[in-house]
Amino acid sequence: MKVACVGGGPAGLYLSILLKKQDPSHDITVYERDPEGSTYGWGVTYWRGLLDRLHDHDPESARALDEHSVRWNEGVARVRDAATRHPGDEGFGIGRHRLLEILADRARSLGVRLEFEHEVTDRDLPDADLVVAGDGVHSALRTRHADHFGTETRAGRNQYVWLGTSKVFDSFTFAFVETGHGWIWCYGYPFDPERSTCVVECAPETWTGLGLDVANEADGLALLEKLFSGVLDGHPLIGRSSGGGGAQWLTFRTLTNRTWWRGNLVLMGDAAHTTHYSIGAGTTLALEDAVALAGALGRHAELPRALTAYEQERRSALLSIQSAARYSAQWYENLPRYIHLPPEQMFALLGQRHSPLLPYVPPQLYYRVDRAAGRLETLRRFKRWLGPKVARTVHARALASRE
After folding, report:
1. Which end of the chain, N or C, is more open, meaning fewer C-beta atoms within 10 Å of its C-beta?
2. DSSP letters along 71-101, please?
C-alpha cells in the first residue's frame, strides 16, 4: 500500500512507524511543510498508561521516549500565599522538539521517507492509496471538504498563552493570582532538566483590564513574571520557542467532525478533534489515533471498512475524554465559584473538575459528598450514576431552548 501522511506531527510519524512494522513493503512518505527541527510549542504531557501502550506497539521508540522524559507524581496548587500539595498519578513531560526527533529517527530507520519543507495543499494531493490528513486543527485537506466532514468549532471564553520558562518545576503546578481586574492563573510542568512549560489563562475582562490585549511581547512577559513571581523564583518567561514572533494569546477552539474520512482521505489528531489543553491529552489522543488507524488497516483489507472501523473505535474512545475536557474548561471559566473555598477544598475540586455533577451542586456540598463517597461504596456508585444523568438532562434542555 502507498500511504501519504500529510503533517509531520506525532500522529503522522507514529502511524508511519506502525504501518512499516506491519508490512515493510508499504510505501510511506511523511510530508511536513516546515524545515526539520523547527516546531512550535514547548513541552507536552502524557501519563503512564500511554507509555505502556506504546511499549506494546513499538518498544524501541517507547524506550527512547521514556529515557528523554521527566516525571512527577505530585500536584501543587498555590492560591494567593497559601499552597497545598497532593500525590497523584505519575505524569511525564517531554519537549515537543525531542518527541518529534525520536519519532522521525525511528521512522527513517524503518524506511519511511520524510520530506520536509514540502507543503501539500488540497489541490495537489499525493498519488497514494491512502492520504492521511494529520495537518492540524487548521487542516487544509479537511477544510476543502468541510461540508462533507461536518466540521464544527466552538470557541471557549477564556484567553490563554503558551509560554516556556527556565524555572524547573518539581511537580505539576497550579498558581492562582488575584489582581484588581480578576483572577489569572498558570499551569506549569517540567519537560527537560532545564525548562518547563507555563500556560497562562484568564477571563477576557482580566486580560483587557491588565492591558495584556495591547501589550507588546516584552511588556506582557514582564507583567506576567511579576504576577507569578511566587512560583517562578526569579526565572524568566519565554515567548515562542521557534524564535519567530511574540507571545500569542488565543481562545481555545474545540473542533469536531461529523465524519472522519472521505474516499481515500482520512483525518487524524487535531485535524479530526481537539480537547481542551487543561486535561493534557492532545498528544496522547493523536498517538492513540495512529494506533487505532494502523490496527484497522491491518485487520481490514478493504479501505472503506478499515476507515469506518477506525472512526467508530476512536469516536467511542473519545466520548468520555471530550466530556472531561468540556467540564474542565468550564471549571476554569467559572473559577470565582471555587476560588474562595479553603485551599484544601479548592484543590480537591480542582481535581474533580471533570465531573459532570460538580457544576450543578454547591461546591462545599459536593466536597462533603465526595469525601463521604470515598468511604462508602454505595454512595460512590450513586455519584457515578447521578452525574451523567444530570448532565444529559441539562444538555437536552439547552438544546431544546435553542430550537
Report:
1. C
2. EEEEEEEEETTEEEEEEEEEEEEEEHHHHHH
| Whole-angstrom distance, CA of residue 58 vs CA of residue 264 | 26
Residue with cell 527513517: 108
Which residues contact residue 158 at a Cβ distance below 8 angstroms, ignoring those fewer than 6 apart?
Answer: 201, 202, 203, 204, 251, 252, 329, 332, 333
For residue 323 the three cell numbers come to 466530556
- Strand partners for 75: 86, 172
Residue whose grid cell is 504501518: 19
The residues with which 237 forms a beta bridge, in sequence order, are 165
Q: Which of these, 46, 98, 276, 71, lies nearest to 169 by C-alpha position?
A: 71
Q: At what angle do helices 59-67 and 48-57 cross, to 10 degrees?
A: 140
Band (373; pLDDT cuts 50, 70, 90) = confident
Per DSSP, what are the bridge partners of residue 188? 173, 198
pLDDT tens-digit map of 191-201: 999 999 999 99
Cβ of 153: how many Cβ atoms within 10 Å?
10
Tell me the C-alpha to C-alpha distance, in Å, between residue 15 and each of 5, 26, 34, 55, 374.
Answer: 8, 12, 19, 15, 40
pLDDT in tens, 236-259: 999 874 444 445 899 999 999 999
As to burial, measured by CB atoms within 10 angstroms (0-12 exposed, 13-18 middle, 19+ buried), residue 36 is: middle
